[in-house]
Structures are given as structure tokens and as C-alpha cells.
Amino acid sequence: MSKSTRIGYSKAEFIETDTGNKVSRKCTINGSQNIILGGKTIIQHGVIVRGDLRRAGGSSGAGVVISVGKYCVFGEGAIIRPPYKTYKGRAFSYYPMKIGDFVSIGPKSIVEAASIGNGVEIGKNCIIGALCIIKDNAKIADNSVVAAGTIVPSLGEWSGSPARPTASLPESTPELIEAKAKAFYARFQPE
To answer: Around 41, how many Cα atoms within 13 Å sit in the side-chain half-sphere?
Structure first.
């Protein structure tokens, strides 16, 4: 596909915010007051974002549960929910999730990471376990399962079930990912 190929969508099926976020009317966003979108993020049909799952017993005011950077894409049917941890088999608590800039989450992937760095590409049908940390400019291949608590280093490609390192990415990866994310957003235009 060339960089100039337009990706059309029905304007009636998306809400565009003042900061350029394009959010499908066919996605589910729970606890929107606890979610921050950095701008120019695309949330496609069938995505579920769970901002309502937040730490119990904290302050009664609103708190950021999921923070998303700019130029991110959540593919169709992806599920984004904050990570959780059980203590001594009884106590249960959710933790905030931070997603950096230029992050792509593939269709039908389930993400419960604590932190996803800038320029991360998560393929389709992936499972990212609770409290994972994916560092900047890493790539998770399609159909991979990253175990809970895993730390994925920068500039690495992981694949498999369970996911393991399979390749090193070039030092030019940050610039390539940023350009790819901006080009995708520019091509995602109403029909």
C-alpha cells in the first residue's frame, strides 16, 4: 500500500474532538472522565477502553486511569484495560496505564500493560499481560502472548506464545515509526 492511499471512513460513524482524536461511535469507552487522549489518536470500531476500572480506596475525585499519547491507533476489537494485582489472595487493586506517543495496537489485541513506551507496535490478536512494561520502539508480532510482568526492552521484536525476543530493530526505528503513525493519521479521512 502506498503512503498516499486514503483510508476512508464514514464521518457519521466517528466523533472528532478538538485535539484531532477520531473515536468510533461503535466503540465502548467506560469511565471517560478517567481517560486522557493526547491528540490525533484513532479509536476504531469495536474497541473497548476501560477507564472505569480504578484503584479502590483512593481519593474520591477523578484520577487518570489510562493516559494515551498522540498519534496512537487502537485497531478494531482491541481491549484496553488497566492492569491489576491481587495481594495475599484477597486484596485486589487496579493500577494506572500509560501509553506513549505513536503507539499502534492491532485488531483484537488485549492489553493490560502498566506502561507502553513511545513508538511501540503491537500486532493483531496479541495478549499483553498485566503489569507488563514495553519500552520505547519495541515491536510485538501478531498472535503473540506477553506474560504478565514481562519487561520488553527498547528496539526489540518479540513473538510467540509465550513471547520471546526474536530480532533487534535498527536505530532508525523511532523516526520510521513516527513517520508511519503520522502518515496513517493523515490518510485516515472521511469519505
So the answer is: 21
Tens digits of residue pLDDT in 57-95? 555 455 789 999 999 999 999 999 999 888 777 677 889
Residues 6+ apart with CB under 8 A from 127: 109, 110, 144, 145, 146
Place of cell 526489540: 156
φ, ψ at 34 (rounded to 5°): -105, 10
Q: Based on the number of CB atoms within 10 Å of its own CB, is 178 exposed (0-12), middle (13-18) or buried (19 or more)?
A: middle
CA separation for the pair 109, 125 (Å, rounded)? 4
**What integer pLDDT is reported at residue 1 of this predicted model?**
43
Closest residue by Cα to residue 102 from 182, 169, 35, 30: 182
Question: What is residue 60's predicted lDDT score, i.e. its pLDDT?
Answer: 47
State the CB neighbour count (10 A cutoff) for residue 10.
Answer: 10
What is the separation of C-alpha 44 from the centre of its chain, rounded to a whole number of angstroms?
A: 12
**Cis (ω within 30 of 0) for the bond into 190?**
no
pLDDT tens across 21-47, in order? 999 999 999 999 999 999 999 999 999
